[in-house]
Design goal:
Family: Belongs to the BioY family.
Pfam family, one: BioY
Membrane topology: Multi-pass membrane protein
GO molecular function, one term: biotin transmembrane transporter activity
Order of helices and strands: HHEEHHHHHHH
Shape: globular
GO cellular component, one term: plasma membrane
């Protein structure tokens, strides 16, 4: 006979209890920053823009959905603090450290706490009759609005770009990939939640 802890519902209950402890929250936040750092290193520089193509936003959205608005926000603030101290958590196609937090991609980086918080809040918003996956896709879209708004706005200000140049350098090239990343994050989140509630 399986023990309660080894059954899916037992594991889910243990996971939920772990998330409520201070130690659990700290471990999850650090693990979340590790996921974002790994995804930052899966990076492809593009010759026509200073913004590389990375998997970071996928990780940020997934972290926000999984941890919730407060813990997701806190994890991303921790991630930025790690990068500011010089830890190699940002994409390697940049100067790293404080310099990266002042360069062309700074707006994208500083959007991450807000993006994670918005994804976590929207996916948990009460009253929605949409499926878990649909809510997660919508949450990813809202998070992406923050990412593109702050990222493109910062780049436009830094490089004195007009609206057309900003669109072509900071938004348009990344939209197809962002759609894939949102769908993947929503699929992983909804699958985990289905398992957790079974």
């Amino acid at each position: 006979m399986q023990s309660a802890i080894s059954s899916p519902s037992g594991l889910a209950h243990s996971s939920a209890s772990f998330q409520k402890t201070l130690t659990g929250r700290i471990i999850l936040a650090v693990a979340a920053t590790g996921l974002v750092a790994v995804c930052a290193h899966i990076s492809l520089p593009l010759p026509f823009t200073p913004v590389p193509l990375t998997l970071q936003t996928f990780a940020v959205i997934l972290v926000g959905m999984a941890l919730g608005p407060v813990a997701g926000f806190s994890a991303m603030v921790l991630y930025l603090a790690q990068g500011a101290t010089g830890l190699p958590v940002f994409t390697p196609h940049g100067p790293g450290g404080i310099a990266q937090l002042m360069g062309p991609t700074a707006g994208f980086l500083f959007s991450y706490p807000l993006a994670a918080a918005s994804a976590g809040w929207v996916v948990r918003a009460p009253g929605s009759r949409a499926s878990r996956f649909t809510r997660a896709v919508f949450a990813g879209c809202v998070a992406s609005l923050f990412i593109f708004a702050l990222g493109a706005g910062w780049l436009a200000s830094l490089l004195h770009l007009n609206a057309s140049a900003t669109w072509h350098l900071a938004i348009a090239p990344f939209l197809p990939g962002e759609a894939i990343k949102i769908t993947a994050a929503a699929g992983i989140y909804s699958t985990f939640e289905r398992w957790r509630r079974s």
